[in-house]
Every structure is written in structure tokens, then in C-alpha cells.
Amino acid sequence: MVSSPLCRLILIVVLVAGASAFGQAPPASSNVAGNVSIDLKEAVRRAQVYSQQFLSGTVGVAAAQELRKQAKSALLPSASLLSQYALTQPNGSDAGVFVANNGTHEYIEQATVHSDIFSVTRRAEYRKSIAAEATARARVDIAARGIVVAVAQNYYALLLAQRRLVNARNSLVEAQRFETLTQNQERGGEVARADVVKAQLQREQRERDTLEAEVSIEKAKIGLAVLVFQDIDQAFSVLDDLKADLPLPEGAQEGMRALVEVNSPDIRAAEGTVTEAQHGVQSARGELFPVLSLDVFYGLDSNVVGIHNSSGQLNIGTAVVASITLPVWNWGATRSRIRSAELQRQQAEIDLKQTRRDVRATLESLALEVRVAQTQIGSLQKSMDTASENLRLTNLRYQGGEALALEVVDAQNTAALARDAYDTGLSRYRIAVVNLQTLTGTF
Q1: pLDDT grade, residue 163 (50/70/90)?
Q2: Which pTM value belongs to this model?
Q3: How far is 397 from 34, CA to CA, in rounded Å?
Q4: What is the DSSP letter of 288?
Q5: Whose CB has fewer CB within 10 Å in the chain, the N or C terminal residue?
Q6: How many CB atoms lie within 10 A of CB 76?
């Protein structure tokens, strides 16, 4: 019974199933199950999770929020508890050897509330912290848009590598067919040995091109995986959205300029820096103004611990101290800080103007790139179709004895270059559109 083919097959199936159940053999479909399919938006979302620059920006925003809270708390009354005991060497008097003290034994148990009722510097510092937080948020947006650009470049580099592999394999098939054709015609005495050699060299070159295309895919996958996955060995595939009929970003040139002015994080960051510098000037100038403070004390400050002293008088009570601090002279330090803050504001205003110019120039450049890339796609497609037709006709002419092998090889090379150029044009156009959408905030 055991030696029959059916029993042996059943036994093999049982053994394989048991080994898999105990983890001795991994499932054959483990790589397929672990494969992740992503599009460009999903790749960008994943990249934001692992981007060090983006995460650092979010930490910077959190730090700016805490600084804002600290500056705001400085404007509000603060409360503290003071517990103190002072021992003074006695000398027979009520105060002891130090006449400024209240006695040889002094006990202080007080709750204190302090508030700067009027302080130009503190109010300016609070407004400065608000501007700093807005600037930090703008820098996060800058990092996020940088991620979009980096991911888009790597994403379409992978798509382009995949398409070039398909083109390389098609070119290899064409070369193999031509080699077979020349070998058959050589046997029939129709062509010379030189035609076979040319076909063999062409086929070997196409094999090397195919291998190079396969390596390029692996490199492009690693470049994208580093950005979008925690584990760069994660199996994944990307959605091919290289199409010639993709719509242009909506809005005319003037509309795009308006979008850039509103949505550009570079401009917002530069504007935030200017606002921050302006409040820095106000903070420095605030040192020229008096500061009005109010302190309220409640508790005990006595030679004995108790509600009443030895004479029966009340020990616990309230004291209010109002003080005005007037700046008089500090050897020009305040004036120097004001001048320094004004120079920082001046530099921030210069940077803002230059940022607006750079963003405007980038918009013009990207809009031109989109228009040129879109215009070239039609020409590239026509060239690809013409090269394919030329290859077909040249093959027919060669079979009829009217063309040389060198002409066929040249037609194959022209067709391969035309196919790669068309895919490169699609990739160029798609990247240009993404970059323009990112700049205008419409991605």
C-alpha cells in the first residue's frame, strides 16, 4: 500500500504540510503577500513618516509652542511659596549683631504673587514668540514640499527604469529575430557571414542593455525605498501614471502667481522672520521704558511661629509692594541691542525680497518646463512611431535583399532610442507638473 504512487503522493503532501505548520518551511507566497502597491500620494505620505528633516521640523514647531507658552506665562501673575528661617548672633539687643534683621530668630512663611503690570519688553517677547512659531510651521511646510519633490524624482526614476527594461527586452527580441533571420539566410547562401556577425554583436549588446536596465531598476527601488519605507528590503510596486494626456495645473500664469504668494512656505517663513525681527526691535526698545511691578505677600514674618506673637498681636497678614524700575545708564548696552535688532530686521527684509524673487523665478521656470515638456511629448511619440515603422520596412527590405544588415542594425538602434526618449519625455513632463503643483500648493 505504501509503495503505491498514490500513497507516496499523499505522504509527501502530509510531510510538507506538517513542516510548514511547525515553521520549518516558509510559505511559497510570503513575498507576494508582503508586496505593497503604492501611488505617488501614498509614497509622499509614507516619506513624511520617516523623513528626518520633516520630523525635525515638527520637533521645532513643538519647541516654538513651548517658548510661546513661556512668553505668555511671563505676562501673567506668578505665585510662589517662601519658607525661611534666619538665625542672627545675639548681642543683648532685640535685633542681634545685624541691626537690619528683625531679631535673633526670624521665621518667614509667605505666599507671594508677582506681576509685571507694565513691561514693553515682555509683551514684545510674547508677540515675537508667536511669530517664531508661525515661522517654524512654515519651515515644516518647506520640508514637506521638499519631500514631495524628492519622492517624485525617485518615483518617476523607478517608473522610467521599468519602462526602459521593457524597451530593452523588446529590443533584445528584435535583435534575436534578426540574428535568426541572418543565420537562416546564411545557410541558404543569400547573405555573407558578416551579416550574421553584425546580428550577433547587436544581440549581445541588447543583452547587456537588458542587464543594465535590470540593475537600474534595483538601484531606483533602493532610492525610493529609503524614503518611503522603514525597511528598505520591503517588497513593493508603484503605479504607472506616465500618461501623455495628464491635465496641466489649473489657473493662468497670473493665477499661479497669486497662489504662490499665498501658499508658498518659503515666503511665509521669510515673512515670519521679518515679523519676528520687528518684535525683536520692540523688545530691545522696551528696555528704555520703566517697568511697573506689583508684589502681594501673605503669611508670617515674625520672631515666633504662631498666629499671635508673645504680646498677643496678630502675626499673619498681607503686604503689597508696588515698584517702578527706571532705566538710567548701562553704558550704551541698550542702544547697542536696539541697533543690533534693527540690523537683524533689515537683513530679514532683504531676505524676504530675495525669497519673493526666487519663488517668482522658480514659478516661471517650472511653468516653462511644463509647457516645453508637454509640447515635446507629441513630437517624441511621432518619432517613436516613425522609428518603429522604419524598422519594420527595413526588415522587409532586408528580407527582399534590398537593404544591408548595417541598415537593420541602425534602424533597431534608432527605434530603441526613440522608445527611451518618449518615456523620458513622459517622466520629464510628469515631474514638471508635480513640481509646479507643489510650488503652487495644489498637489
Answers
A1: very high
A2: 0.76
A3: 50
A4: G
A5: N
A6: 8
| Burial (0-12, 13-18, 19+ Cβ within 10 Å), 52 | exposed
Cα–Cα dist 226/212, whole Å:
21
Strand 236-238 and strand 36-38: the pairing is parallel
CA distance 433 to 439: 10
Q: Is residue 309's pLDDT more than 60? A: yes
The percent helix, strand, coil of the chain (3-state, each to 5) is 65, 10, 20
Over the stretch 248-301, which tens digit does the pLDDT of each residue have? 555 556 678 888 888 889 999 999 999 999 999 999 999 999 999 999 999 988
Provide the grid cell at 212: 543594465
Average pLDDT over residues 15-22: 39
Q: Pairing state of beta strands 291-302 and 105-118?
A: antiparallel
d(CA 141, CA 143): 5
DSSP 308: B
Residue appearing with cell numbers 520630523 = 55
- List of residues 6+ apart from 337 with CB closer than 8 A: 284, 287
SS3 307: coil
Question: How deeply is 244 buried, as exposed, middle or buried, from its count of CB atoms within 10 A (0-12, 13-18, 19+)?
Answer: middle
Distance between CA 163 and CA 428 in Å, rounded? 14
66-94 tens-digit pLDDT: 999 999 999 999 999 999 888 888 887 87
Q: What is the dihedral of CA 176, 181, 182, 187, to 10 degrees?
A: 130
Q: Output the pLDDT for position 338.
A: 95
CA–CA gap between residue 387 and residue 295 (Å, rounded): 89
Residues 270 and 263: their CA atoms lie apart, in Å, by: 13
Instruction: Tell which wins on pLDDT, 391 or 21.
Output: 391
Task: Classify the phi-psi angles of 312: left when phi > 0, otherwise alpha if psi is within -120 to 50, otherwise beta.
Answer: left
**Chain-wide mean pLDDT for the chain?**
87
Q: How far is CA 141 from the centre of its chain?
A: 8
